[in-house]
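Revision sheet: structure tokens.
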Amino acid sequence: MLRTVIDADSLPPLHAPTVVDVTVEYFENLIVSGALHPGALLPSERRLAESLDVSRVSLRSAIAKLSAKGVLIADGRTTAVTNVSAALISAEARQTGSFSAADAWEFWSFLSVEAAAIATERHTRVDSVSLDQSQTHLLTGNWDEAEEQTDRLLNYLEKVCATAYNFFYTQVYIALNTALRPIVANRLGEIGKETELRQSFVSSINDAHLCFINRDREGLRDAFAALCSFLEPGKGDVIRFPTSEHTTSASRAQAMSQLVEHFRNSAMSPGQTLPSVETLAQATGIATTALREAIAALDALEVVRIDKKEVVSLLRTDLPDSSAPLLSLILKRPDAVRQVYEFREVLEVHASYMAARNSGADIAPMRAELKQALEISEEQYAQADVKLHNRIAHMCGNTVAAIVSDALMPIFLKVTQEWFRLHSESYGDLDIIHRQHEEIVNAIEARDSASAADAMGVHLNYVVQAMRAAEERDRLMRISTLRSHFG
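Predicted:
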């Protein structure tokens, strides 16, 4: 047998994570997997520490990091999972102001049907039991109490969506539910007053539930569409997206901004070690307690790094934008990246279909961008790619679809840039992508809705398959590199 002597100096370094890092990763994985959904309340600190077998100090530090990232929100008494997608959508929607409830309902209905269709293939026996209980709770409720029935109905629908096991989809859906809640409550109030209407609505819930349990995907599409039709808002109704429930405290945000500004004014560069807290407090005028909280928050946002010896190093001299919390959950997890593309497929296939039906859609800008795309770099092509997809969302004629696309555009861009990095290494050129884009635009220009939807579906499916192939190649490359270390 061939024996090789391993050179210890050639081995790759081992970076052992801290208990706090492992705890942060644990909660992030629970959120991405869908085990923890927006609004879910964590157990008490004592019970959670005992369950996870970590010290309360480590748990407190992990929760502080997750809160600084915007993934959790802690008010001193309870800790809940935030909706990081909703924060982006709310910010974008506030720029638009109020908008048609009909647009919100149309987009929400579409997402409801698609989420339920995906969930028919993925729900487990445990999911079925939970949904049975929610349905019973809804149908045995007092229809004279519209607010309570609204909570029960939206809870049921959110559970259906959650069984699609796509955290991105669930977060966007819950954000829309929150915005539409007043409209739903109003409609349920009207339904509760009319016996025949209420019986028809209950029948639609039973039909949808039966199709879901029996995994009848096509039957469920029709049943869910019928259910949603009962909740159509009146003409002229408008809604606003509520402000996100997560906001960094004003004092901490101010301290963070002051610190980063101090780093820039002091000409500090990445890699440098920060002065002591006392020195920084004297230089910035920030109280030491607020300063320590701000540094911990900047560590969570990867602006600084705190090592095991409490030495703080500067990583960057600017604050990340509002999409950072969501990106931190997605980019390091291949399964989360695929969830993004699954959501994009649902959103953009529908947008392509509707854009082709929109007689007022202006194709000329897309034609010009496609022509320019032949002469730009791969990095620029990623930006052009996302811009093209976003333009299609704006052409579909639904304000809310455009708002969602605009809000999530930074996420789509980062994920697309990563895909192009993998794609260029695997395939070397972008000809296939460009041809697929041309087919989408040609179908929209020809007002061929079915072909536009099909072309977008083929394009996004190709991207996912190519990404999986690139991930496998990277996996084999890592194994090959490790083999080389062992002779």
